[in-house]
Design brief:
By secondary structure, the chain is an alpha/beta fold. It folds into 3 domains: about 1-115, 3-Layer(aba) Sandwich (Rossmann fold), CATH 3.40.50.12160; about 120-360, tm_1862 like domain (pyruvate-formate lyase- activating enzyme); about 365-425, Beta Barrel (OB fold (Dihydrolipoamide Acetyltransferase, E2P)). The chain is built from 13 helices and 20 strands. The protein has helices at about 1-15, 40-55, 70-80, 95-105, 120-125, 155, 165-180, 200-210, 230-240, 255-260, 265-280, 300-310, 340-360; strands spanning about 30-35, 65-70, 85-90, 110-115, 135-140, 140-145, 160-165, 185, 195, 200, 215-220, 245, 285, 290, 320, 365-375, 380-385, 390-395, 405-410, 415-425. Strand 2 (about 65-70), helix 3 (about 70-80) and strand 3 (about 85-90) form a beta-alpha-beta unit. Helix 8 (about 200-210) runs parallel beside helix 9 and helix 12 (about 300-310) packs parallel to helix 13. Bound molecules: S-adenosylmethionine (SAM) and iron/sulfur cluster.
Amino acid sequence: MNEYDSNRIYDLTSIIGYSKTHIKKEADCFVLNTCHIRKKATEKVYDEIGRVKKDFKNLKKPLVVVSGCVAQAESEEMIKREPYIDMVIGPQSYHKIGDLILNYERKKEKINETKFDVVGKFDELKKISNSQNKISSYLTIQEGCDKFCHFCVVPYTRGPEYSRPFEQIIDEAQNLVSNGAREIILLGQNVNAYNYNKKYRLSSLIRTLNNIKNLKRIRFTTSHPKDMTEDLIDCYKDCEKLMPLLHLPIQSGSNKILKSMNRKHNREYYMSVIEKLNKVNKNTKISSDFIVGYPGETDEDFEDTMELVKKVGFVNSYSFIFSPRPGTPSATKKLNNLVESKIRLKKLQNKLENFQHRNNKEYLQQHCEVLIENKLDNQEEYFGRTRYMTPVIFKANNCKVGELANIKITSFNQKNLFGIYETNKVKAA
Ligand code: SAM
Ligand code: SF4
């Protein structure tokens, strides 16, 4: 979502005359769009500002703006901790960035803008076209969260659940496709909680996008298991453009830990969702997020997670050590032993990697459908992704970016598949 927001921030600043530069020392303004989900992400912001300071030591100081969830959570404190920062802007007020910069240029007074104005934000954004022109483009449809998992900052930094108007989203999708997008990834912190005017759900959006000519693939992320409703599951049966990989975070395989996390689902419910999906489409695969070392997690709880991983056989998953976030209920709980948590994380990641390896191996000498996203810098190879998001690097003489290609896989490593282009006549698997 930060990538989507960063693109929109660029669209907004281009109206007041700014343009992107890849030469750092040329910049008049830095916008650091930040993430607050784990402590490591927060610390990166101050490290990056340190690097800007060093680079501009003998040059005119650039305008430094911190946007995103760190700005929301720490607001004024950021300017106190790092006076090099001129402006903090929360994720629900970045539509004002143009005016704020112009104000700053006039008055040179520090600015703290962290109001929740998500309706105003999307009203403003719909007036300027999304300039993104990637083959695979992001499109935010929903923001915020009302679930309040005990470890998570999102309800505090992005605010309550908000669903963008249905027509606004379809217009933006059509605009992206006319810019060249062939895949759209619908985004939301709780994307499957999308509900506009109690009439349009995520399934309505998918069914409408499925009819857009020239759009070839649809994905959405991130979903909460509780919101995997029947109408959404049915899309995996009826919508051929909806890709058969569902990212469905479970966090832990232990019911005791899930309860203590306030996740509002248990492992049996989670398994029943997967079962329903497999019933409507046997090709569906699941990826997930895991938190290890949550306060109170015992060896037995961790083994429950490992056992669940074995049962489901997840692909392309993410795993993290619990990071206490200030202001969340679990931040005050007694922390688990870090060395133990690191050992558990390694064990879990090894297991997930084994599944990934096994999954990649299955492609060997097979043909698979790849959406070609770009030509690599070496000018000899192309990059694309399978229907399950696995990156594919392949050689081709004459293929077109944006087409669905038939690639024969000849080798693989942990993360990528490698192959050769055979034809653009693909049968969707
Ligand atoms: N809404 C999605 C859900 O409920 O499953 C998750 C979105 S969350 C923004 C992305 C992921 O970050 C979570 O699935 C979780 O694994 C991880 N995460 C969130 N808070 C965390 C914390 N305090 N420590 C470690 N990982 C965390
Ligand atoms: Fe955070 Fe997802 Fe839980 Fe919402 S549902 S509080 S975004 S982890």
